[in-house]
Write a structure and sequence with these properties.
Blueprint lengths: L2 E5 L5 H10 L3 E5 L3 H9 L3 E2 L3 H5 L4 E4 L4 H8 L5 H4 L5 E4 L5 H13 L3 E4 L2 E2 L1 H7 L2 E6 L2 H11 L3 E8 L3 H29 L4 H8 L7 H5 L22 H17 L5 H18 L7 H4 L4 H6 L2
Parallel strand pairs: 1-2, 1-4, 2-3, 4-5, 5-6, 8-9
Antiparallel strand pairs: 7-8
Nicotinamide-adenine-dinucleotide binds next to helix 4, strand 7, helix 7 and helix 12.
């Protein structure tokens, strides 16, 4: 069993670090939020006072943070993970941060005698709780060999895609499709309501028809139909609107760099940006349906 440092104890980090504890690893965690630290402590995670304190003496360091900017802050600099973790150990970053940041951080890690693996995940909070996440890894074979056995405690499908950045490349394309699907599911759910279609009937038919998708099935945006969808829990995240918007910005920026049209992702980004500007940035991404005019009371009661 290993000594794991876990930085970032949010919606994903809490259940993932809990699964590490359940697998028998010793987990020392850190988060800037008091509530996050308390949630992890209740799961048997030993709470450190800082990033440096968490990573000292660790066999491996996990990060699960919002964005490229936050991951950079946490791993680089004199108080960061790279400078304070034992030489030869590896940071396994499960956040969605984009290709360029992953490559830069891997180069920076190498200069300091440590490793960096990009290991973004798919499957949402439910997948994190069930340890059924898909993980897409980018990095040197030696570093990936350290990451893979540990990741079996949090995920069910673990693939080494290629060198540094390739895990993020895979995540960018997956999430472009996921986020466009989410935006479509929200828009069409409002239309279905306006047409007088019962939410349950709408769900049952689409999930047996060609409109079906993972997001529609798991994150159906009207309440009272899919028990585990955040829409059935007052749109508490889950996956925040500001984070799905971040992923769409990563997708559109990457597409622009490669001179590829990604107009549907740009349209979805605009919808989520408008929802965020309307104050819904920290609600679950299914709440886009509400900002687009879904009648939540009607959906709950059934039409
Ligand atoms: P989150 O905002 O719930 O969690 C991030 C945590 O990082 C927060 O608790 C925050 O307090 C903490 N944090 C911020 N700055 C910090 C710092 N300097 N030091 C220590 N902790 C710090 O986000 P999440 O939903 O858990 O997502 C994390 C990452 O995983 C994101 O990149 C997201 O895109 C990706 N992701 C999320 C989901 C999902 O369904 N939520 C699914 C797949 C991938």
């Amino acid at each position: 069993m290993s000594k794991i440092a876990w930085i970032g104890l949010g919606h994903m980090g809490v259940p993932m670090s809990h699964n590490m504890v359940k697998a028998g690893h010793t987990v020392r965690g850190y988060d800037i939020s008091d509530a996050a630290r308390e949630a992890a402590r209740a799961n048997g995670v030993d709470i450190a006072d800082s990033v440096a304190d968490a990573v000292r003496g660790a066999d491996a360091v996990f990060t699960m943070l919002q964005s490229a900017k936050v991951v950079e802050q946490v791993v680089t600099g004199p108080d960061g993970a790279f400078a304070n973790m034992p030489k030869g150990t590896v940071v396994i970053d499960c956040s969605t941060i984009g290709i360029d940041t992953a490559r830069l951080l891997a180069e920076e890690a190498e200069k300091l005698g440590v490793g960096f693996v990009d290991a973004p995940v798919s499957g949402g909070v439910q997948g994190a709780e069930d340890a059924s996440l898909s993980l897409m890894l980018g990095g040197d074979i030696d570093h990936v060999a350290v990451a893979e056995p540990l990741l079996k405690s949090v995920g069910a499908y673990i693939v080494h895609v290629g060198p540094s950045g390739d895990g993020q490349a895979m995540k960018v394309v997956n999430n472009a499709m996921m986020a466009v699907g989410m935006a479509t599911a929200c828009e069409v759910s409002v239309l279905a309501q306006r047409l007088g279609l019962d939410s349950q009937v709408f769900f049952d038919i689409v999930t047996r028809s060609s409109g079906d998708s993972w997001v529609f099935r798991n994150w159906f945006p009207l309440p009272g139909v899919v028990e585990n969808s955040p829409s059935s829990h007052d749109y508490e995240p889950g996956f925040m609107i500001d984070l799905i918007h971040k992923d769409l910005r990563l997708a559109t920026a990457t597409a622009a760099e490669f001179d590829v049209r990604l107009d549907t992702a740009a349209a979805a980004a605009k919808l989520f940006a408008d929802a965020s500007a309307a104050g819904a940035g920290e609600r679950d991404c299914t709440a886009l349906a509400v900002t687009l005019g879904a009648d939540v009371e009607k959906a709950t009661a059934g039409v």
